[in-house]
Design a protein that fits this description.
The protein is α/β, with parallel strands linked by helices. The protein has a domain at about 215-275. Helix content is about 25%, strand content about 25%. It has helices spanning about 45-50, 85-95, 100-110, 130-140, 160-175, 230-235, 260-265; strands at about 5-15, 20-30, 35-40, 60-65, 70, 145-150, 175-180, 195-200, 200-205, 215-225, 240-245, 250-255, 275-280. A 6-stranded mixed beta sheet has the order 5-6-7-3-8-9, with helices on both faces. A hairpin with a 2-residue loop joins β8 and β9 (about 200-205). The longest helix is centred in the middle third of the chain and has 16 residues, at about 160-175. About 40% of the residues are buried. This is ATP-binding cassette domain-containing protein.
Length: about 290
């Protein structure tokens, strides 16, 4: 993101005399952050997400900042005159990719979400689960600076849900921002930098950082070039980093982000040497509150 996205005194109602869905909302979404939105049904969570994605305009107040944004709605319109691969390829070209690159990237995302076998299936014939995989793929293929997810995990199988969590971690590690709503309180538990509750038309920030205590942490020991600093993508992902000797680090990382950390280290130039990885054991206690990652 080029700069923060900000909602300043934002209100939204439908109709000239309709009730206010949201009013007096102030919110800042910074780069490289994960934000969770909570609230009972009908409180205005989806309205807030549509305002962040600039798919809706406020009745009062203003929105500043224009990051490249991708949005996954709760219900994705699947009756489109494309195959799954054709639809994603088309959107890739809209994002500015060449047709060859768009087609290759689209195929990669379909494979990642376990939908590669449906690449040539017309969108109208896809199951709800497969259609949802296309929905999340279309949001990710353009590497958005702001990713907005409204119940995006609904309808996905377990493997695809885990893959979407990895994709979220990749986006924030790469400096993007992610805002999400999900009915499962365990979704990305401990990972959000901030959690807000939409209530009575307003927005309340939950104190104490993430939405719940994080799960156990994996421990990763790495060795880098002499005098080298950790790659930025790795720094954003880890919870703690100790440097016992120059260029050697002991890192603690939430288990859901460990593969993102390893990818950042191994694809760095020059690559870092991963000395050891110690996964968390089932009886490890929860980690302390993560708060805001660096």
């Amino acid at each position: 993101m080029q700069r923060d996205l900000r909602l300043i005194g934002v209100g939204r109602r439908y109709g000239i005399r309709g009730p206010w869905v949201l009013r007096g909302v102030d919110l800042t979404i910074a780069p490289a952050t994960l934000t969770r939105m909570e609230g009972a049904n009908g409180t205005g969570k989806s309205t807030l997400l549509r305002l962040l994605a600039r798919l809706d305009t406020p009745t009062e107040g203003r929105v500043t900042g224009r990051p490249r944004t991708a949005y996954v709605p709760e219900r994705f319109p699947s009756a489109l005159p494309f195959t799954a691969l054709g639809y994603l390829t088309h959107l890739g070209t809209v994002h500015g990719l060449s047709r060859t690159t768009a087609r290759r990237t689209a195929g990669t995302w379909l494979e990642r979400f376990g939908a590669g076998a449906h690449a040539d299936t017309p969108m109208a014939r896809l199951s709800k689960g497969s259609s949802q995989k296309v929905a999340v793929a279309q949001a990710l293929l353009g590497e958005p600076e702001l990713l907005v997810l409204d119940e995006a995990w609904t309808g996905l199988d377990a493997a695809a849900r885990a893959e979407l969590e990895r994709a979220v971690a990749e986006r924030t590690a790469a400096g993007g921002a992610v805002v999400f709503v999900d009915h499962d309180p365990r979704r990305l538990a401990g990972a959000p930098d901030a959690t807000y509750t939409v209530r009575d038309g307003g927005l309340e920030r939950r104190t104490g950082g993430g939405s719940s205590p994080a799960g156990p942490l994996a421990q990763v020991t790495v060795q880098g070039p002499a005098g080298g600093a950790l790659p930025p993508d790795a720094t954003r992902t880890v919870t703690t980093a100790e440097e016992p000797t120059p260029g050697s680090y002991r890192l603690a990382v939430p288990a859901s982000h460990s593969d993102v950390l390893l990818r950042a280290l191994l694809t760095a130039r020059p690559p870092w040497h991963v000395v050891s990885v110690t996964p968390p054991s089932d009886d490890d206690p929860p980690s302390a509150d993560l708060g805001s990652r660096p």
